[in-house]
Design a protein that fits this description.
This protein is 40% helix and 14% strand. The protein is an alpha/beta fold. It holds the Pfam family His_Phos_1.
Length: 207
């Protein structure tokens, strides 16, 4: 088997996840549970025998703190991650900071569902999943994938929708099927890649 290893982890639970708020590019901290989820991810990855050579994360605190907590649990606190807003969560625009139930009351269940679960319809002032893919995938292709293909065991801590953009390519999802791909907070997915960047093996460490 190859050493071309890519690990994706959605950040641990944030304060706004707990409050059922649209978060997007807003920057709430991790909850106590989120901190525990990140630490547990580090314990699990260490148990798999992994040692990382490179790490990437978003420009948002919840992803950066998740990355730091994972690396500390693995005894790799000195590894400095590359931070880039290309890995940020989908921008929810005018929905950011709103309770999801309140948003349904304002715009209606059907409209909010369309914004959340369609591939290419953005909320007012925000991004669709297609927009997020268009932002995230070039960064993956130009920066993250070359690291993995060089044999660097690479950790990416980011967000539900920015990680969906990567998973869409790795797992060969369609615009329809990727919408159903759920990602638990703080749960690592380990991919071992072939030399042509396709997936040789996948291990999901979801709780």
């Amino acid at each position: 088997m190859s050493d071309r290893i890519l690990v994706l982890v959605r950040h641990g639970q944030s304060e706004w996840n707990l409050k059922n708020l649209f978060t997007g590019w807003r920057d709430p901290a991790l909850t106590e549970q989120g901190v525990m989820e990140a630490k547990r991810a580090g314990v699990r990855l260490k148990a798999e025998g992994l040692v990382f050579d490179a790490a990437f994360t978003s420009a948002l605190t919840r992803a950066q703190n998740t990355c730091a907590l994972i690396l500390n649990e693995m005894g790799q606190g000195a590894l400095e991650p590359v931070k880039n807003q290309a890995l940020n969560e989908r921008d929810y625009g005018d929905l950011s900071g709103l309770n999801k139930d309140d948003a349904r009351g304002k715009w209606g269940e059907a409209q909010v569902h369309l914004w959340r679960r369609s591939y290419d319809v953005p909320p007012p002032g925000g991004e669709s999943l297609r927009d997020t893919v268009a932002r995230t995938l070039p960064y993956y292709v130009q920066e993250i994938l070359p690291s993995v293909l060089r044999g660097n065991r690479t950790l990416v801590t980011a967000h539900g929708n920015s990680l969906r953009a990567l998973i869409m390519v790795l797992e060969k999802h369609t615009p329809e099927s990727i919408l159903k791909r759920e990602l638990a907070t703080g749960s690592p997915i380990i991919y071992r890649l072939n030399a042509d960047s396709t997936v040789e093996q996948k291990l999901d460490l979801a709780a």
